[in-house]
Structures
1.
Amino acid sequence: MNIQGRPTRPTQASPARRGSFTGNRALDMEEALIFETGRLDASGVDIEHPAPFASRLGGHARAGEIGLPGLTEPEAVRHYVRLSRNNYSIDAGLYPLGSCTMKHNPRLNEKMARLPGFCDVHPLQPISTVQGALELIDTLARKLLTMTGMSAVAMSPKAGAHGELCGMMAIKAAIAARGEEKTRNVVLVPDSAHGTNPASAALIGFSVRAVPAGADGVVSAQSVRAALGPDVAAIMLTNPNTCGLFERDIVGIADAMHEAGAYFYCDGANFNAVVGKTRPGDLGVDAMHINLHKTFSTPHGGGGPGAGPVVFSERLASFAPVPFVVSGGEALGLVEHAGDSRAFGRMSAFHGQMGMFVRALAFILSHGADGLRQASEDAVLAANYVRASLGDLMSAPFGERTCMHEVLFDDRWLKDSGLTTLDFAKAMIDEGYHPMTVYFPLVVHGAMLIEPTESESKASLDLFIMTLRDLAMSALAGERERFVDAPLDAPRRRLDETRAARQPILRWTKPAPA
Amino acid sequence: MRYLPLDASDRALMLARVGAADIDALFSDIPADKRLSALLDMPGSMSELEVERALTTMAARNVAAGSVPFFLGAGAYRHHIPASVDHLIQRSEFLTSYTPYQPEIAQGTLQALFEFQTQVAALTGMEVANASMYDGSTACAEAMLMAHRLTRRKKAVLSGGLHPQYSDVAATLAEMAGDEIVRMSLDVRASEDIGAEIDDSTSCVIVQTPDFFGNLRDLAPIAAAAHAKGALLVAVFTEAVSLGAVRSPGEMGADIVVGEGQSIGNALNFGGPYLGLFAAHLKHVRQMPGRLAGETLDADGRRSFVLTLSTREQHIRREKATSNICTNSGLCALAFSIHLTLLGEAGLRRLARVNHAHAVDLAERLGAIGGVSMLNETFFNEFTIRTPRNARALVEDLASRGVIGGLPVSRLAPDAGLDDLLVVAATELNSAADRAAYAAALAQCL
C-alpha cells in the first residue's frame, strides 16, 4: 500500500488461466530475453575485416568477455516486434493519461525529422554548412514567442523538468545580479504541482514553501500574498493546473510576485489547453517551459525523448543560457559562449533536441494559427464532454465547474464499493483502454485525471464514455470480480511491485549452473 | 484540418451536452482582457505537401554529413545504423506509447529497458545501469550530484580531458547549487596529474576516456588516488563504440560511469535527441537518478518487468528526490539496445576494430603532410593534430572544398590558446577514398 491506500501488490489469487504448451495465447506471445536467446558470436550486422594495421590502443585494449549477446537480423526483428505487441499505444487506442497529452503523432513529422539535411547533420559542423538547421531552430523559436507573447527563448533544455531547471537557473541568476542571492532562497510551490517542480527548485538550493489551493482547486492571490516575504525568489505554478483548472487569479498572483520583487515561473506542461486562446506573456509570466512532446505532439517514445524550450519575459531574457541563434546580416550565427553577457551558462552539450524541433515545427506549420486554436478548443471541449457525461456517476472534487483540457475525478464515489481507483483503472485495461492518470495530483484522494485530447472523434469519445459508465455502474452495483482481478486479458496480470522494490533485480544475470 | 476529427455538428452536440452556449464559455476562467480575440500572428494551416516543401527547402540548406568526406566527432559520432533499427523504433507500440506506468500493457517497453540496462552494465563493466538520461553531458552533471550525495562532500574536480561542454554543463549546475568545482586546464596530451588535486573535501574526480582529444587514459591510478581520499571516480565516455575495443571504466575502478550513447543506433540529429548512459555499483543504486526497470512476478507468477525503486524519484519524493528527471531518452535507448543486439559482442568488437583501423590509417595520412603534427600517443577513433594555420579558418576552407575536417578546439574553448588544434575522427563510414580526399584537401589548404 502506498500513502493513499493504492495497493502495490496483487491481493487475491486469480482464476486459473488456460495453459498452452508455449505459454502463448494466439497473438499474445511470450518472449525470452536476448540474454537467453542470443549468442556472443552471432551478429545481425556484416562488418568488413580491416587490412592488418598497427594498433594505437597502447596498453588499453580490452581483454575478456563483455557479455553482449547478438541476434541475426530475422531473430532481432522478431524479438522486438513481439515485444512491441505487449505495449498499448496512442496509435492503437484512446490514451487518456491526464497531464501527459497523448495526442495523435503525425507521421509527416517523422518523415521530416529523417530528412538527411536534418538528421545527418553534426552539431559542430562549420556554421556555413548548417544554415538550414539554424533557420529551423530560429523559425520554431519565433513561433514559440508568438504563441506565448514572451521576449526570449532557450531552446536547449531537453525535457520539461530540464526546462524547469533552466527557468529556475535564470531566476537565480537574475536574483544574484541584484545581489539578493543570499536572502531570496524560497520558492513557492502548490501541493498540486508536478513532482518535478519542487525537485527542480531544490536541485539548485532553493527551499520549497507550499502554497495551499482553495476549495475551488485554484490558488488565490490572497494565499500567495500570505506566503510571500523578502525571502521568496519565485513561485512555480502550473497553468492550467494539474487539476485541469485555469488559475483564474493568475494576473493577481503575477502582480503579487512582482510587487514583492520575485518572479513567476509557469509550468507549461498544460499549455496545449490555451494555445491561441491566451498568452502567458500577457498574464505576467516570467518564464515557462513548453513540452514539445505534449503540446506539439513529438512522440513520447515510451518515455522520451522530449524537449522543453523555455520562454522568458523581458525581465529574464538577458539571463537565458547559451547557445542561441542570432541573425548576422545574410547568414545566421550561433552564440555558444556566454562571454561577457549575462547568459547564466549552459544546460547541455550542443544545441538542444533538434529532432524534436523538426517534428514540433511540422506540427505547428500543419495546424497554422487557425488549427492551433481549434486544437486547444477541441481538447477543452472533449474534456468537458467527458466531464458532463460522467459527472452523475463519478465524483468531481471541485464540483460542476468547467475544466480545461483534462477532467479530474476523485474516489469518493467508490467509497461504498470497497474498490479503489487502481481497481477501476485496471478494469479499463480489460475494456481495451489505457487507464487515465491515477493518484495524481496528490491533493485529491484517489485521483483519476482524464485527458482525451483533440485527436478523438465523437464516436470514439462516446464509446469511451459508455465504457466508463458501464464500469462505474458495475462498480456501484458491487460487481467486484470485474475489478479486483483485473486485468485478466492483458499480456500480464497485476504485478508485484513490492517484490520488485524489496528484492531489486535490475539486470539479467547468468543463472548459476545447476 | 486533417488532424482534428471533430466537425461543426459534433462540436455543437458536445457543447449542448456540456451546457455551454459556445466554446468561449469554456474558457471563461481566463481573465476577459487577457483572452485573444484574433488568431495568432502566423500563417494558417498547411497541407502535408506544403509543409513538406517548406521543411525540405530548409533541410537542403545544410550539408548532410553523408554527402561529403566527413571527419567530425567531438562527442557525436556518425556510424552506420542498420535499417531494421529505425524500422523497429517506428513501430507504433514503441513510438506512440507513454512512460510505462501501467506495466500490464507496457511489457514491451519494460522488457526492452531491462535488456538495455543489462547491456549498458555489461558494456561499462558496472553492476547496474538506469533506463537512460537526456544525454552524456547531463548524465555527467547528475553523476557529480550523485557523488556529492554519496560522499556528503561538495567539491568536484574535472579533468582537462573532459569535453569542454560537459565541463560547462557541470560548472553551471555547480555554480547554481553553490557547490565547489575545480576545472583543470585543457590537457591535450593526457599529462595532467589529477591525483594531486584530490583532497579530503573532494567528492569526485570526473575523467573522460577516450578523452576529448582522443587520448586513452588509464583510470586505475586515478581511482586509487580518489579512493585513498574517500572520493569517487566518475568515468565519462562520449564514444560508446570505443568500449568494444578498450578496457571498461568498471574494470579500472570507476564508481560511476556515464556516457553518450548516441553513437550506437542514433543519428547525429544536429545534437539531439541523444542518449545519456548511467551506470554504478549496486550498493549505490538508491542514490542513482532516473528510472529503473526491474524484474518481478505478476499475479499468475509469470516473470514481468516494472519501473521500480521510484521512491528515489521526483513524482514520489518531490524536493527530496535524487533528481528532477522525468521524461528521459526512452526511444533513443531502444535504438541503442536494438543496434547493440544486432551487433552482439562479436559485431561490436569488429566495428570497434574497423573504426580504429580507419583512424590509424587517417592519422598516418595526415601526419605525413608537412607542417601537421600528430599529438596523441594513443587513440581509438579520434585524435588531435596541430596545424600551421588557425584551425577554425582551416575547417571553413576545407568545407568550401567539400570536406568536413574535424573540430577546431577553439570553437569550444576560445580562450585556451589552442587555436591551431584540430580534433579529427574516423569511423567505419569513411572509405579509403574519403581519407585520401581529406589528406589531399588538407595539403592544399596549408
2.
Amino acid sequence: MNKCGIAMDDCVLTVSSLNAWRSGRWLLRDISCDFPSGSVAVLAGRNGSGKTTFLRSLASLLLSSDGWRVTGVVRSAQRVAYLGQNLPLNEDMTVSEFFRLTSSGGDEWIQMHSRFAIGELASLQLSQLSGGQWQRIRLAQCLSNPAPLVLLDEPDSFLDRPWRGVLLDCLSQRAARGDVVVVALHRPEEAKSIATHWLGFESGSLMFCESGRDVYPNELLGRLFLVKRLDSPEPVD
Amino acid sequence: MKSVLFLALLLCLFLLLSFVSGPATPFSAWLNVVTLKGGLSGFISDHSSILELRVVHILLSCAVGFALATAGRTMQQLLQNPLADPHVTGLSAGSTSAVLLTLLFFPLLAQRLLFGWLPVLWVSAFIGAAGALSILNSLLFRLVRVWGAPALALAGLFLNASFSALLMVVFARLSPAGLTEVQSWTLGAIQPYGLNQALFLLPMLFIPSFYLMACERQLLLASFGQDFALTNGVNFIQLRGRILLCLMFLASAAVCAAGSIGFVGLLVPHLTRRWMLRCERPALRPIFNGLAGSFVLLCADLLSRTLTQPAELPVGVYTALLSFPFLVMVLLRHQKGAA
C-alpha cells in the first residue's frame, strides 16, 4: 500500500489505511501515503473533500470525546506546527501580548518576525486587524515553531500576492532544512515550484498521490476540479 | 499594578465601613470605643458574639464575591461565551435545589440544624452542581450546533426553569417561618454562620479560585480554539475537566455560604476586562477581577444591611439592582469601542 513508492524507513511521516468517521459519515477513507524528510506535500480537492480532516488527523486533533472514530496508523513527529482555519479571535489582546503568550522566542521567531513584518503590527489590538494582517501573525506564530512536521490549512487565504510569495519561500526553506510540510492551498497551482508531492482528495478518498519535483499533475488536478464542473462555481484553472 | 492596589485600598475602606455599620452594632457603641469609654477590651467582651458574626459575615461576602467573579470569568473564557456564569447557566440553581431537597427529606436537620450541619449540605450542593453541569454539558453539545452561542443562555434558561419548578415543590411543603428564611436564601443572602463553619467554607471558596487564576495562561491559549490550544501544548480536555471540577466546588460552596447570588459572576468580568487592557502584566487581571467581585458583593451587602433597617433584604436583590448601572456602563463602553 505504498502509493508514493518510497521505502518506509526513510519516511518522517507515514500514514497507512487512515479512516475517520463522525456523525454517521466517513470523512476520510483508507488514506495511505508516506513523506520523506524534506517533502512539501500539497493537498488539492474541492470544498469538503477531506483536506482539513486529513490535516487535523495528522496533528492528532480528532478527539474521540468530540465524536471522532479514527482507525489506521499515523506515524509522525511528536511535535507539530499546525495552522488551522477560522481561528476564533480573542479580541482583548494586543499583537505583542499574543506573541508573548504563544512564542518561546529564539532565532526562528526573530526571523519570522521580520519575514512577515510583524513589527509594524505589534501595538495593535487583535480586534483592529484585517484578515490578511491576522493571517500574517498566525503564520509567523506557527512557523516560528521549530517542529519537524508543519501542517498548514489554507495558509494563503486572505494574503496578497507578495505575502503568498513570502509564505512559499518560508515553506521551501523549512523543507530544505529537512522538515516535512503538508499544506492545503487555496490556490494550489501557485505551489508548482516548491511541491514535491501532490495529493488529490475527493469525498474523503485519496484520488492520486504524485511525487517528484517538477511534476505538476495538471491533467489530474483538472479532472479533480472539473469532473463536476457544474457544481463548482470556480474551477481552479 | 496601580489599579489593583487602588482597588485593594478601596476594598479595605469598605471592609471597615461594612464592619461598623448595620443594625447589630449601633454606631454609638463604636463611638464609645473611639472615645475609649470603657476601653476596647470591655467593648470586645461585651460584643464578642456580634463581632464574630460580623467578621465572619464580611469575610464570607468577600470570599463569595471573589469566587463568583472568578468563576464567571473562567466560564466566559472556557466556553467563549459572554453569557456564561454560574447563575445564568443554572449551576447555582442546581446546588440550591439539591440543598433544599436534602432539607426536605431530612426535616430534623431543617428544624434544628438549619445550615448547622454544613458538610452534609455542602455535599448535596456539590452533587446538585455536578448534576446541573452534566445536564448542561450534554444539552449544550446538541444545542450549540443548532443555535450557536445563544445556546448557552437557552440551556441555562431551561435548567433554571426546571430547578425553580423543583423549588416550588419544596416551598409547598415548608412552614411559613421556614419559607421566608429559605426564600431569602434562594434569592441570595449571606448566612449567619459562626467561625467554625466559615473555616470550612473559606478554603472551599478561595482554593479553587486561586487554581482557576493560575490557569490564566492556558485559558488564554484555549480562547483561540481547541485546535490551537492542543497544538500549543495545552491538554484541552484535561484543562476543561479540572476547571469544571473547580467550578463545581465554587458554585456549591458559594451556594452554601450565600444561596444563589446572581449578576456578580456575569457582570464583574465584563467590567474588569476592558479596564485591565492597559495592564502590562496579564497575571494581575484575574486578581483585579476577583477583588472587584469582592468589592461589588461587599457594596451590595452593605446596602442590604443598612438601607432598609431594621429589616434586611436578601443581598441578591441588591446585586441585581447594582447590576443595572454596571450593565449600562458596559454597554456604553462597548459602544465607544465600536465607534
3.
Amino acid sequence: MLETSDVLVLARLQFAFTISAHIIFPAISIGLANYLAVLEGLWLRTGKAVYRELFFFWSKIFAVGFGMGVVSGVVMSYEFGANWAGFARFAGSVNGPLLTYEVLTAFFLEAGFLGIMLFGWKRVGARLHFLATVLVALGTLFSAFWILASNSWMQTPQGFQIVDGRVVPLDWLKIVFNPSFPFRLVHMSLAAFLVAATIVAGCAAWHLLNGRSGAGITKSFSMAVGMILVAAPIQMIAGDAHGLNTLEHQPAKIAAIEGLWRREKGGTSLNLVGWPDMQAERTKYAWSVPHLGSLILTHSWNGEIPGLKEFAPGDRPDSTIVFWSFRVMVGMGLLMFLLGALGLALRLRNKLYDTRWFLRFALAMGPSGLIALLAGWITTEVGRQPWVVYGVLRTADAVSPVSAQQVGTSLLMFVIVYFLVFGTGVYYMLKLMAKGPEAGEQVADLPGDVGKGLARFDRRPMSRATDPIDE
Amino acid sequence: MTIDLPTLWAGIIGLAVFLYLLLDGFDLGIGLLFPFFDREGEREVMLNTVAPVWDGNETWLVFGGACLYGVFPVAYSTLLPAVYLPVIGMLCGLVFRGVAFEIRAKARRTQNLWDLAFILGSGTATFCQGLILGTLLQGIRVVDGRFAGDPFGWVSPFPVFCGLGLLVTYATLGCGWLVMKTDGELQRRLGLLLKPASVVLLVIIGIISLWTVLGQPAVAQRWFAGHNFIYFAPVPLLVLACVIGIFRSADSGHEARAFLLMEAIIFLGYSGLLISIFPNIVPPNLSIWAAAAPRSAQIFVLVGVVIILPIILSYTALSYWVFRGKVRHGEGYH
C-alpha cells in the first residue's frame, strides 16, 4: 500500500510536469507578441515590406503557441482543487481571485483584440490594427502579471491574516505587490523576450545554414541577435537584484542554491561546481572561488550569508536540485551573452550572416531561452520547499485526501495526452518555422473573411496557420 | 430570503455552468454524432457549424471553475477530490478534442486519426461530466470542510447512469443544432433522429428525477413537503410540453424552434437540479455560506466580474448573431 508521502511526491511530479509543459507556450506567446508589435510598428514607420512579411510569418507561430497555451492552462487551475485541496481550502481566497483575474484578462484579450490582430487586416485600418497588436502584447504581459502576483505571494506572503485555519485577505494591494513580485515580473518578462529572441535567431540561422538568405531571414537574424545582445546583460542585472531580494526574504533558498552549509566568517566563497549531499550535509567535489559569493550576493568583499545548517533539516529545500538548476539557468544566460557579443563583433566586420560556426552556435542556442526559463522556475519552486506558502503552509499539508493510485493514474494520463497533443503542437510550430517567411505575401493571401454568410470579425487563433501538418 | 454576497455569487456561477451546458452541450454532441456521419464532406459541414464558436463555449467552464475556486474554495477543495479521476478524464478529453478540432483541418493523411481523437475526446469529456454531476447529486461527505467520502464514490450505478444520460443529452442537442444549421441530405438524415432522441431524453430525465427523489429523502422533502410541489410542478410539466413541442416543430419544419425547445429542456432539468440541492453547493450538507471565501475575496473578484462579464456576454451573443444561418459544404471556415 502506498503512503501519504507517495501522494505528495506524485502530486508534485504531476504539477511540475503539467506546468512545465504549459509555461513553454505562454513564454513563447509573450515574447512573440511583443516582437510582433515591434515588427508592425517598424512596418508602419518605414513602410518596408520585409517587416510585414516577418509579421505574417511569426504571427502564425504565435497563434499556434497561443492556442496551445490556452488548452494546457485549463488543466492547472483544476489541479489546485484536485491534487492540492489543502492548499485550495487554506489559501484559495487569495490564489483563486488572482487566477480568476488572469482568466478575465485572457478572455478580454481573446474576445476582441486577438481576432483583429490575426484576422482583421482586411477590416480595419493599419493604425487600428497596430493598436490591436500592441494591446495583445500588453495583454499577454498582463496575464503574466496576475499569475506572477499569485506565485510571488506564495513565495513572500503578506497582507493577510489567518482565521480558523484559513487565509483571510486584508489588503489586496499588499497581496499583489508583495516583496518578490516586482523582481519576478521583470525577470520573467525578460526571460520571455529572450525565449522569443533565441527561437527567432535559431530559426533564421537554420535557414541561413541551408542557403536561404532572403531579406526576411537576414533581417530577423539581425534583430534577434541584437535583442539578445541588449536583453541578456539586462537580464543578468535583473537576476542579480532578484537574488538579493531572495536572500532577504528566503535565505534558505539562497543557501541551497549555493550549496552553502555553514556561514563563512570573513567572506563567503562561491561553489562554481560541486555536488550538494543532503544526507552528508556538505557539498562534495566543490570547486570554489574565495569571496566571490560575498561579491555576488552581498555586493561586498566580506559579506556573510547564512548556511543551510542554520535551518532545521525539515526546513531545507533540496540543494542538489536547485544548485544545478540554478547553474543551468546562469550557464544559458552566459552563453546568450556570448552569442550577443560575438554577433556584435561579426556585425562590425560585416560577417554576421555567413560565418557558419556562428550560425551553428545560434541554431544550437535556439532552445536556450526555454531551457533557462524552465531551470529558473525549477530553482524558485523547489527552492521554496518544504513550503507551499512560504513559512505559512507546508506542501505536505496541502495535498488532497486522495490515494497515490489515483494521482499516479492521472499523472500517467497527463504524460500520454501531453506528449501526443503538445508534441504535435510543437512539431507543427517547428514545421511552420522550417517553411520560413514568404517574400511578397499580401494581405489578400491571408485567411479571413471567407464566404458572405460566414463573414465574421474573429476566428480561433489556431486557424491563422493553414499549412498542412502531415505533408 | 435576502440576496447576500454568497447568494449573488451562487447566481453568477450557476449562470456560468448553465451557459456551459447550453452552449458546449451541442458542440460536444457533434463529436458524439461524428461516427455515424462520414459521407463526403459531411464531417466538414458538421464542424463548420461550430468552428467560430466552440472555443468561446468552453470559456464558460474555465470561468465557472475559476470563480468557484476564488469564491467558494471550500466547495472547490471538497468537490474536486471527490470526483478526482472524472475531472482529470474530462480535462484530458477536452484537451484532446480541442486540439483534434484544430489539427484535423490541417491534416491530410492523418485525418482519420484526428477524427478518432475528436470522437473519443468528446465522448470521454461528456461521460466524465455526467459522472461529476451524478456524484454531486448523490451527495459528497464533507467533515470539517474536508472531503471525507469514498474516493471512488463515482463508481456507482447512479453517476454512471448520469454519464450515459449526458451522452444522450448532448447527442440530442447536437442533433437539434445540426438540423437547424444544415440542409439537404445531411439534414434529412439528422432529422430522422430528432423525435426518437427527444423521447429517450425524456425517459432519462424521468429516471434520474425518480432516482434522486426515491433515493434521497432530503430531495423528496424539498419537492413534496407542504405546498412545495404546487410551486415546482411546472418544471416537469413544462419538460413534457417541450417534448410535444419538439415533435410538432419537427413535423412542421420549424428547425430553430425544435432546437430552442431542447435548450429549454436543459434549462428545466438544470432548474430541477438547483431546486433539489439549493442552498447547498455540495450536497448533502455544505451550504454556499459555509463554503464561501472571506468577504474581502468575494468583493475583490466581483469588481472584475461586473466589468468583464457583460462584455463576454455581449460578445457571445454577437458571435452567434453574426454566425446565424445555414452552413453548406464547400463554404470553408478553417
